[in-house]
Design a protein that fits this description.
Length: 386
Amino acid sequence: MGSQRIARRIRAVPPSGIRRFFDIAASMPDVISLGVGEPDAMTPAEIRAAGQRSIDQTTAYTSNSGLLELRVTLAAHLNRLYGADYDPEDELLMTVGASEAMLIAALAVLDPDDEVLVPEPCFVAYPAAVLFADAKPVYVPTCVEDSFQVSGAALEAAITPRTKAIVIGYPNNPTGAVLSRERMLEVAAVAERHDLLVISDEIYDRLVYGVEHTCFAALPGMRERTILIGGFSKAYAMTGWRLGWLAASAEITAAARKVHQYAIMSAPTMSQYAGLAALRFGEASVRAMRDEYDRRRRIIVGGLRQIGLPTFEPRGAFYAFPSIGHLGMSSEEFCERLLTEERVAVIPGDAFGPSGAGYVRVCYAASLDKIEAALERIERLVRRVT
């Protein structure tokens, strides 16, 4: 029987390029990992304390949609920051991280053979979620010359009668690009002209440097056609708590909830209480972490450029995306040599789509000591191959 036992949709999805290098690095001594996008900070104390207190009070499920108090507070948070207005009872759903939100969104709205426009480089879960829904991801390339910002014209050129949706993720993983409001409006115009849904992953919305984040759902006329996705893992250093959310019209949220209720009883209860504390008391911690990431961002971008690796300036998230194509090796070969010869783990750029070829993703959420040591090791490899 062999592979015939495995569903075609699973065979169509390649293993995660992120996970591969993470697993290799985990088996080696003295590795500095700049691979996985995880804050090096502990979850702030007041948030941890709220989760710990909740365990003493209840270990039961919450509502499948999540604690109503949390959804009410999240709705107020989104309205205060962006003017995005959601009914906490019918239009917000708490999920097991933003990745689950992305998957259930795809399963809720996509039919077999639908096409979904996916600007890339992009997070590896976007095309995978589309494929798991038996739909077809259509890559829309972006480039450094355009600051890795997708344009309305590029999206327009990729549309066919089967196009159902657009998936965008800004601030972007892996490039750190932030989509300007003008470009957001171009995307919105395309969506409206062709009656498309937009799935907007804004997990890094609070981590922007010197620019403002534009919430796609808050653009004129976009609320009803947008599935807005976010979470607590990045801005609040809550990766292990696995808490995300989905916001959409009542009709779309009900469809997503139907998938969610068969997949999971509820997001972790203690995580939801921690998330409530994050929204109520975590703002000072978010600002402090953002300032620290900004400091590391400037150090790593300057260091990579000084080494001789042309590096796009990231304005959001916590990733740098240096070019290594001039070194005469592929992204994967560079990452393998850097890992085996210098014990530094980074991720090949083409793990995030064809436009990532010739680049690598470097996460600067690691400590400053590790960043500086990693830069020294990267420089040693670059000197050897040039």
